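Notes from the 1:1 (GR / supervisor)

We went over the backlog. Supervisor wanted to see one worked example end to end before approving the batch request, so GR pasted a single chain during the call. The sequence is below; no edits were made to it. Supervisor asked that the structure be written out right there so they could see what the output format looks like.
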Amino acid sequence: MTDIDGHHHHFTMPVGKIQPHLWTKQKQYASDILPTVFSELVNATKHPFVQSITDVLSYKVSFLNDKVLLVGDAVAGFRPHTAASTRQAAYDALLLDQKMKGEISHDEMVEEMLDFAERISASGVWMGTRSQFESLKDQSEDDKWYRKIAT
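Structure output shown during the call:
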């Protein structure tokens, strides 16, 4: 992303640095495709910034002979629209508590943590793709896939 001063940014375009012609184009795009309430919010934004959305998912959570354990955002960085980071940290803490009480094994805890992270991450990708590139009125094969992973 190149700002109004010609500086390149990899992840975040700071407030006030978006090229005006691109912001005008984005507001028009929002008016063309978004429901009225959302396009009005975009068009009313006086000081926009841009944040890239990235997917981060660890396929291993236990290290150093099970002495170090990744939990929460260290396991997966969910897309903001999933609103699930706190849920992930709480779930991981509950699993760790169950493991420490002997209710589940270490392997069961790790499997559950990774399964949760993979399902929420996949649902975030699905939601983002659906909201940007598909009609929200259409029922697609992806809906069946999402319902399967979300349960």
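Supervisor's comment: Residues 123 and 147 are 9 Å apart (CA to CA).
Batch request approved.
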